[in-house]
Prior knowledge:
Elements: H1 2-37, E1 57-63, H2 70-77, E2 87-93, H3 99-112, E3 117-121, H4 128-139, E4 144-147, H5 158-162, E5 171-180, H6 187-208, E6 221-224, H7 225-230, H8 241-251, E7 255-266, H9 272-299, H10 305-315, H11 320-340, H12 345-351, H13 356-373, H14 377-396, H15 398-409, H16 443-464, H17 475-494
Parallel strand pairs: 1-2, 1-4, 2-3, 5-7
Antiparallel strand pairs: 4-6, 5-6
Helix pairs in contact: 1-6, 1-11, 1-13, 6-13, 6-14, 8-9, 9-10, 9-15, 11-15, 11-16, 13-14, 14-17, 16-17
Amino acid sequence: MIFVAYIIIVVYSIALLLIFMYALAQLNLLFNYLIAQKKEDFSEKFDFSNPNEIPFVTIQLPVYNELYVMERLLTNIVKLKYPKDKLEIQVLDDSTDESVISTSKQIKELQKSGIDIKHIQRTNRKGFKAGALKEGLKSAKGDFIAIFDADFLPKENWLLETIPYFKNSEIGVVQTRWSHINRNYSTLTRIQAFALDAHFTLEQVGRNSKDHFINFNGTAGVWRKECIYDAGNWEGDTLTEDLDLSYRAQLKNWKFKYLENIETPSELPIIISAARTQQFRWNKGGAENFQKMAKRVLSNKKVRFKTKIHGLLHLLNSTMFLNVLIVAVLSVPMLYIKNEYEHLKNYFYMMSFFVISSLIFFICYWFMYKNIYGKGFKNFLKYIATFFTFFSIAMGFSLHNSIAVLEGHFGKKSDFIRTPKFNINSVKNSWESNKYISKKISIHVVFEGLLALYFAFGMYSAFVVGNQGGDFGLFPFHLMLLLGFGYVFFKSIFTKA
């Protein structure tokens, strides 16, 4: 029995240590972020008052069965301010449903008004989104390629604010920050926005300001066409083709420019099945890219050591869910081990140090939160509630996301499953009739329900372990896990917003 206990202790300790290392990396990014806030941007830019400095731009809109948002997307895109003779729009339409007809009709009307817009369709979905982008690139007239997913709504001046940064011939990508039109729709959208806000502030700025690897986020950014070709073009062998090409481009010494101050509004998934689809694709794709790119990053002699470390941790972002799941599941037997083996008391005192990981995340995310929502005691109280809600639900997703991560690391291939879009901003609007919603309940959901019960048992255990009236050190942790897994289970079963 003691042998099993030691195995549990070793695995638990390793997972805690990896989480701590990730927390330290986040803390370093926070320092980078705070320093970057104090620096002025002296980037050279194209002078758009000189017509000769205005480059030709191609906008690519990769879409697949986007019945509910296509009209909104095209209506918004054609409002972008840019010289008409220097702009073309490619609708890269892989759709297989009736949206093809309505999209084609709208495009023909726009063509009649003098807009250079093309409806490009393939006979197959080879390479999925990457394949569509690659196909469009063959006929793209622009030197620069702006990309928007169907749920993004760039503001009118978006091109005028991003394209000038390509004056610097070393810049291969300009990426903007996502904002969210339906942030306050529900608890689910608020915690998604919270997580993405952290990525688009601390992480993107923190990495970019020190010339570490960052990623094009698949949308709301611009590529230099030369950079795409030089990096080897789009490849569809991972589920996150954006992360893949980003690393290949930066390994070719292309620079990325991240613009925190330019927001690109977008729509968040409003039901948990849609969020699960998106999370699975992102996390599996992250693991796939670690397998594909880690060796290239480590072996590249031009990449600084610190940048290599940040790059590896970046590629391992999604793998943190696996470490969280391991710590969560083993925390219950660890509670019993702690109270059974007196001679291990010093070890557990030492392990309590790793609570600092949560404190680091709390501090890092507060700086992000106050920059967006402002300081003050009331906002701080709101932040505390948001942080613990986010942490709980994020842990509730850990089983689902860990399965995605393991599939990615072990090379199990799967199709690119798009995230259903809704075009809904208010809870008063109905989404139940959306034809793209998956009604199938995954077996993963059953295990999430069982894990909720398991952590309820962990809370009960706090009262009965040992002979000193219980041990409540892990009680808050198990409560958060119960709430997180319970939330994900309930919402998945009942498909509630």
